[in-house]
Amino acid sequence: MLSPSEAIKLLEAQSRIRIDQAKSMGDQAQDSETSPPLSSEHSAFSTNLDKEHTWFSLKLGSNLPDASEGIGLLIGTDSNKELIEAPDICAVPFSPDWLKGYMNVRSHIVPVIRLETFLGIHMAQPELAVKSAATSEALSYVLHFERGPESFAITIQHFPKKINLPSGAQLKMQIPLPDRMQSCIGHHYRFQGIWCEWHIDSFCQLINQASLNAA
């Protein structure tokens, strides 16, 4: 038979063992919650998400062939851009038709480009087009791109929207486009319309060259 002091020591030892076991089980449960193993379904879902790419989409009016669903430009989400409502635009006499004028943005004078006119994709029979309320509102805005000395703004027909394009939407063959537009875009996609990656650097070079030619 154990003495009282020996019995107390034995109970304390058993208690410490139970505490250690409980702590070990708790740590294992926490690890399981924070780092769950990926099932095959979970892995496939993650892979599908990785294949999507997010852009800002800017829909254009078009009379181009193979674009009956509509055509638009894809703008990188890292582009420094902003919508400006009803700006004061100063027209310039004898300027090219694609130049609407100039506007003051925080003490910087920037050109306002009629985008579709510049790219050569005018609306087909614009006098017959029925403009929605959203389109009519968008017409009072310009989209300004902050690029230091190469800053510019464009007229818009529709507000830009975020769009997620799956990799499978990329077209293997590009559709015919006007030369000026073709020289400032990348891949083509078909996803609820035709979308073209817009290379802003190349577009700015086109503006500079067109301005020199018009001078």
Automatic annotation (TrEMBL):
Lineage of producing organism: Bacteria, Pseudomonadati, Pseudomonadota, Gammaproteobacteria, Oceanospirillales
SUPFAM superfamilies given in the database record: CheW-like (SSF50341)
Domain CheW-like: 78-164
Family matches, as InterPro entries: CheW-like_dom_sf, CheW-lke_dom
GO biological process: chemotaxis; signal transduction
Species whose genome carries this gene: Oleiphilus messinensis
Top-rank lineage group of the source organism: Bacteria
Biased composition annotated in UniProt, kind: Polar residues: 27-44
Protein name per UniProt: CheW-like domain-containing protein
Chain positions covered by the region annotation Disordered: 22-44
